[in-house]
Amino acid sequence: HRVPGVRWSRRRPLRPSPWMQSTPPMAMFHFRLETLLNQRRHAEDALQVQLAEARLCLSAEQTALRESKRAHSQCMRDLHLKQQEGFRVDDILLYYPYLDHLKQTIEERSRRVAVAERSVSQKRHALIEAVKKRKILEKLREKQAREHQRGEAAHEQRVHDEAAAQQHSRL
Length: 171
What we know:
The chain is mainly α.
């Protein structure tokens, strides 16, 4: 069973080279606060939706206020023209209740715009806080992942160093 050109020795059995030995696979990184991070992302998404809805509400209120102001201005112009043309008191008396109604509508819509602006501001502030909280967790996750990677690289280096030392001691 001899193979030509190969030396056989009975001293010790052949072992594979340490360089050929497989190193254990790197352990997967597991962030213990992943569930909390996912919850924060979900909360941030919900706040973004709420902010968008609040902005739509504000826009609608601002449009209604502009329309009421436009109607009031138009009514005032019409009244002014009637006064210049020569007017009947009955015609003028019809304008004043309508103008009063428009003023009340403008005041009410102005209050609604102010409430909608406060709502948008509050939702924006809540969203900013949610983003900060999420980013803090993401930075912590990245830091722990880097530390894990460094630890794994150091472990792998130790394994290679030990294998090289064993190889060198055999020579």
